[in-house]
Design goal:
The chain is of the alpha+beta class. The chain has 9 helices and 4 strands. A 4-stranded mixed β-sheet has the order 2-1-3-4, covered by helices on one side. Helix 1 links the parallel strand 1 and strand 2. Helix 1 runs parallel beside helix 3, helix 4 packs parallel to helix 6 and helix 6 crosses helix 8. The two termini are 34 Å apart.
């Protein structure tokens, strides 16, 4: 099998794609581009993904996939024995629902926090800070609801982590979400730590978050 090519950046959403490819033991290489830090990297990425966002995944046949949830669903369907997506249809539906929830609610709020000027016609400092604060509160609230609705879909010690596990483990690392969950949803926080420690995933996470 030819290698998958992951366009990604340290500590970004592409870590979830790296983690998923590692779980299914698929060969891949990473092209490091940080479009949020480098205008040159953003322009390099533009022909691959006009949104200038990572992750982007080039499949072994040369086809392009973007959007974190779409990539993870694709890999789960392509490798059905991997456990990235549950085998039972009802469980699989809930995992896909959870992936869509994360990207539409949590990931979306992070995009506002990181780039508030994109959402303001006149981005004065007061409006900018107010938007960031509101988006962060909404992000933390969204994770509380996720914990309440989806904790039963996450893996246990005797199971294999899936796509929903890796995306939750990555996206909760941003904007104080882990600390908020430690205080408000300690059981869910413990689940996230269990995902972090999984022997296949731990080295991937350690490359991006060494401490």
């Amino acid at each position: 099998m030819a290698d998958y090519v992951v366009y990604g950046a340290e500590g970004s959403g592409s870590v979830a794609v790296e983690a998923a490819l590692t779980l299914i033991d698929a060969p891949y290489r990473v092209v490091e581009l940080a479009p949020f830090d480098s205008a040159a990297d953003a322009e390099t990425l533009a022909p691959i993904n006009p949104m200038r966002q990572v992750p982007a995944l080039v499949l072994p046949g040369g086809e392009l996939m973007t959007e974190s949830a779409a990539i993870l669903i694709h890999l789960g369907l392509t490798f059905p024995q991997s456990g990235l997506l549950p085998a039972e249809a009802a469980d699989r539906d809930q995992a896909i629902r959870g992936l869509a929830y994360i990207v539409s609610n949590c990931y979306a709020a992070i995009g506002i926090i990181d780039y508030p000027e994109r959402w303001l016609i006149t981005p004065d400092e007061g409006a900018r800070l107010n938007l960031i604060d509101g988006a962060r509160r909404r992000l933390h609230f969204s994770w509380e609801l996720f914990a309440d609705q989806f904790s039963g879909e996450l893996y246990l010690d005797d199971e294999t982590p899936g796509a929903l596990d890796v995306l939750a483990a990555v996206v909760t690392r941003w904007e104080g979400s882990r600390e908020h969950l430690r205080q408000t949803r300690p059981g869910f926080y413990a689940w996230l730590q269990r995902i972090d420690r999984h022997p296949v995933l731990a080295p991937v996470f350690a490359r991006h978050w060494p401490t």
